[in-house]
Structures are given as C-alpha cells and as structure tokens.
Amino acid sequence: DAGITQSPRYKITETGRQVTLMCHQTWSHSYMFWYRQDLGHGLRLIYYSAAADITDKGEVPDGYVVSRSKTENFPLTLESATRSQTSVYFCASSPGQHLSPEAFFGQGTRLTVV
Amino acid sequence: AQSVTQLDSQVPVFEEAPVELRCNYSSSVSVYLFWYVQYPNQGLQLLLKYLSGSTLVKGINGFEAEFNKSQTSFHLRKPSVHISDTAEYFCAGAGNMLTFGGGTRLMVKP
C-alpha cells in the first residue's frame, strides 16, 4: 500500500534491551523524521534524515540511533531501553522544504519499557 | 531557530459554537506554517498549510486559519464545530525541520 507505515504498532520491552522501530515510505520522499509524543511535551524531534546516508540530531537524540541506507526506510533503534523512553513514536516523511514542506505521518508505535 | 507556541492546552466548546485555537510562532527566516489534527490512537493528518500568498488559508473539515505577520500568529478557526471535531490539534512551523507546538485538545460537548 502507498504511504508511510510503522511497525510494530505496539511493543513492550524490558529495561536494558535493544529495540528497533521500523518506518517505511513508498513516496520516495527525501526527508524522514522520528518524533516522540509525550503528555505535556507535544511532539519532539528525535532524529531526521535529508536523504539516504544523511542523518542529523533533533531535539532529543540521546539514547537513540538511526540509519538510512535506503531512501524508503528509516529505522529507529533504542540501544538500551529505559523507562523514560516509554512513549508514542511517530515517523514522518516530506518531499522537502523547497518542494512541499509538510510532513506525512505514520500511525505511530506505542512503546512501553518495563 | 523557529519556535511555535499554542496558547491553550484545552479548549472546551459546545457543539455548533465557533472555536479559535491560538498559535504564535517566532522566526527570522521564511515561514511555512501548518495545522495538524490527531484523532485518538491515530497519527497526525494535515488540516491546512500556509506557504505564501493569501493570508487566509482554508483547510479540510471546514477549518481555516489566518496568517498574521505583524502579530506572528496563525490561529485556527471553525464557525460551527461538531462532536466529531473532538481531537488534539497541533500547530507547526517549518524551517529546516518541522517544529510543533505543545498541542491543544479540543473538546466538543453536546
């Protein structure tokens, strides 16, 4: 299906474990983003990518790792999960600032770290 | 750097009443502004966007917003709300990356 998909939709993991959240888009958008949504904080940018093999930190990157070997995929890895990383994670993509700067969002992944 | 502030965390309103959700931005560069809506357990959907041109922007579901450069505002309005408009609304601005306000929960009461 066309669009942006995240997997899994729900995940429970234990403190200290590594977990990877997947994001896949079919539009060939240049930009991809990872946000976390927490009550009282709105959406905060974790990492973003302007193109394959180009990534940069956002507002709250600590404890996260990203990669972008292919344009369509942008996985987010929590190297050693902590309870403070319990959140809803949203992936988004965008054609880019000079083309069409709005972002298109996936349905989100609800991650619980116990 | 750009920042976006939503002045109200919650807005209760009765069905069929008008509503305004407030958003202020700060930026020293070109401004692109957006309003997104998030229904429960869903991702964000674009309601409307301002890129350039007319300062009054019309979006989906009867919403509109007005870009006011002198007041650095981009308030969202709807003349008559429905129960189905109950959701979280986010104002966002774009420079190199999209920056979101804290969100406003619109609660439409019968």
Give the structure's gist in a few sentences:
The complex is a heterodimer of chains A (114) and B (110). By secondary structure, chain A is mainly beta. Chain A has strands at 4-7, 10-13, 19-25, 31-38, 42-51, 54-57, 64-66, 76-78, 87-94, 104-105, 109-113.
- Principal-axis shape of chain B equals globular
The greatest interface here is: A-B, 22 and 23 residues
Low-confidence stretches of chain B: none
Name the quaternary structure: heterodimer
Please trace the helix and strand order of chain A, writing H or E for each element: EEEEEEEEEEE
Report on the architecture of this protein.
The complex is a heterodimer of chains A (114) and B (110). Chain A is built from no helices and eleven strands. In chain A, the strands form two sheets. In chain A, strands 2, 4, 5, 6, 9, 10 and 11 form a seven-stranded mixed β-sheet that branches. A four-stranded antiparallel β-sheet of chain A has the order 1-3-8-7, with no helix packed on it. The model of chain A has no long low-confidence stretch (mean pLDDT 92). Chain B is mainly β. Chain B contains no helices and twelve strands. In chain B, the strands form three sheets. In chain B, strands 2, 5, 6, 10, 11 and 12 form a six-stranded mixed β-sheet that branches. In chain B, strands 3-9-8-7 form a four-stranded antiparallel β-sheet, with no helix packed on it. Chain B has a two-stranded antiparallel sheet with strand order 1-4. The radius of gyration of chain B is 13 Å and the shape is globular. Classes of the chains: A mainly beta (114), B mainly beta (110). At the A-B interface, strand 5, strand 9 and strand 10 of A face strand 5, strand 6 and strand 11 of B.
